[in-house]
Amino acid sequence: MPLFLCRSIKIFFSRPSKKQVRNPEILWLAEKIIFHDPTKNYYRKGNPNLAKLIPKNKTLFRISPDRGLPIGNLTSQFFANIYLNRLDQFVKHDLGVKFYLRYVDDFILIGKNPRQLQIWKKRIDIFLKKELQLTLHPRKSVQQSVCRGINFVGFIIKPGYSLIRRRVVNHLKEKLKKFNDSPLPDSPETFQKDLQNILSVINSYYGQFRHADTVRLRKSLYTRHFGVLKSYLEPSSLDFYYFRVKK
């Protein structure tokens, strides 16, 4: 039975290398973007007390200056993919791994031999430390049969079908409950704004759901959790691909 090994990398960047960038102006611009400190120049929105609930390893305010990336910046994912291209080349060409996937700092190796997976893991660990000054996350390694499902980029991927993470579904349920439990605003304009906001949230989640086998899930969420929203929103089709405001 095929097995997979999934690892996550702790990323922190060294200075941009002239091996990848030769143009001095591009090198200067890349360094300005990568090493800009967003904790020194930002606007805080929302309830500041909620920020205290964020785990220490999930916020740039509580880690050392040489660690972490502002994940809200599209350039962070872009530069991570460029920087880790050497890992891709090493895994595919040096190790000869046939089934390999990576999304930013998460990657998967699939093989039939558990011992071989462990050898690959050790060699990757050495390569990352020596060549890229990176380390594998010590607590995010999983080695098991693919039949149990691969937890990757928000989906549980199994042979022949895929599902959505329960945590993602629960987040949508919480947002729907919050809207339904809130009193209706006095102003029709305010209500229309709130309705458009929750519609955007719902369609964002349902857009992700469409990439998995979730027809029953999409219908069940509408039936059991939309509440008062059923009076204002309608599904686009019997498959509940997305929603629109009722005329």
Q: Could you please describe the fold and organization of this structure?
A:
The chain has 247 residues and is of the alpha+beta class. Helices cover 40% and strands 17% of the residues. It contains seven helices and ten strands. It has helices at 24-34, 74-83, 85-94, 114-132, 166-181, 188-209, 215-225, and strands spanning 3-10, 99-103, 106-111, 135-136, 142-145, 150-152, 155-158, 161-164, 233-235, 243-245. Strands 1, 2, 3, 4 and 5 form a five-stranded antiparallel β-sheet that branches. Strands 6-7-8 form a three-stranded antiparallel β-sheet. A hairpin with a 2-residue loop joins strand 7 and strand 8 (161-164). Helix 3 (85-94) crosses helix 4 (114-132) and helix 5 packs antiparallel against helix 6 (188-209). The model is unreliable at 11-16 (pLDDT under 50).
Brief summary:
This protein has 247 residues and is an alpha+beta fold. The chain is 40% helix and 17% strand. The longest helix has 22 residues, at 188-209.
